[in-house]
Amino acid sequence: MAVPSHGFRNVAQQAAPFMSAKVPIVSLAKGLERGTLSRMSQVVDDVMPGHPVAVLTGPNLASEIALGQPAACVVAVNDADVAVQLQSILSSATLRVYTNSDVVGCEIAGVVKNVIAIAAGMASGMGFGENSRATLITRGLAEMTRLAMAMGGNAPTLSGLAGMGDLIATCSSMKSRNTTVGVRLGQGESLDDILASMSMVAEGVKSSPSVLELAIRHSVDMPITEQVVAVCRDGATAKEALTALMSRTSKSETI
Questions:
Q1: How many angstroms separate the Cα of 129 from the Cα of each of 93, 148, 185, 189, 246?
Q2: CA nearest 211: which of 202, 200, 198, 223?
Q3: CATH class of the structural domain 104-247
Q4: In 10 A of CB 17, how many CB atoms?
Q5: Percent of the chain clearing pLDDT 70 (strictly above)
Q6: Lower CB density within 10 Å: C or N end of the chain?
Q7: How would you class 83 by CB atoms within 10 Å of its CB: exposed for 0-12, middle for 13-18, buried for 19 or more?
Q8: pLDDT for residue 254
């Protein structure tokens, strides 16, 4: 199901009556359901009980996949037999598919990387270079890892394709809608004007408050996410967000 998170439940409900029993449902969505804070696999479990739920994720910018450029991804599902079947179905000469049983870690990685991409885009839009982007990617990975582990995910997942791989691809490319939103915010455009000019969804804008709510629920420190929410929901400027991040109390480097 390649459906944005805000419409995922509705589409799943419409599709459910037509699904044969025990057919795997594969989610490509990288967001959280607003209000419930549910991951998309949890939405499928709720709407389509009895169907194995898999998550397909990784550094997969759609335009490059469509061109047949070499890439790799992860299919995460709790059932090892289903994982191997999906791996065989989805693999091609240009797409290498790895299996992973860590559904939680893979989903949280996909959600949080969109939020961090907005921050990385803002830095680029403000005219900053590679040091700034590398800092945001690295510390964003730490935020992603903390939240995933607090929710039951596995740390190695976050250093793989679903975590670090997707984060690097998204934060480094203007093909990413979330990075593009961030760049334009950093250049001083209003979020309303940016979203009005876009025909596709930037999941990080809608997901950032939900990610922060999850972080608070699980007592996880996510300062970059906090500042993305400050800009996208509360109306702060990119410059104000930068000042808030750079003026934080000094500490040791930890995950």
A1: 35, 29, 16, 20, 16
A2: 223
A3: mainly alpha
A4: 7
A5: 100
A6: C
A7: buried
A8: 80
The structure tokens listed for 148 are 């995933």
Looking at the chain, how many residues does it have? 255
Checking if the pLDDT of 255 tops 80, the result is: no
Question: Amino acid identity of 28?
Answer: L
HSE-CB at 43 with a 13 A cutoff on CA atoms is 31
Provide the pairing of β-strand 71-76 with 95-100. Answer: parallel
Q: What are phi and psi of 2, to 5 degrees?
A: -100, 70
Instruction: Give the residues across from 26 on adjacent strands.
Output: 54
The residue extents of the domains of the chain are: 5-102, 104-247
Mean pLDDT of 207-221: 97
Q: Indicate yes or no: pTM above 0.90.
A: yes
User: Residue 217: which of 205, 209, 229, 228 has the closest Cα?
Assistant: 209
107, 49 in Cβ contact below 8 A? no
- β-bridge partners, 100: 76
Enter the tokens of residue 198. 């876009």
Instruction: Tell me if residue 26 falls in helix, strand or coil.
Output: strand
Active site residue 206: no
pLDDT digits (tens, 9 = 90+) for 54-68: 999 999 999 999 999
Query: 245 is written with which tokens?
Result: 């991040």
Would you call 23 helix, strand, or coil by DSSP? Answer: coil
Which of the four pLDDT bands, split at 50, 70 and 90, describes residue 200? Answer: confident
Query: What number does CATH give the domain 5-102?
Result: 3.40.50.720
Q: What is the mean pLDDT of the chain?
A: 96
The single residue of 113, 175, 206, 251 carrying the catalytic annotation is 113
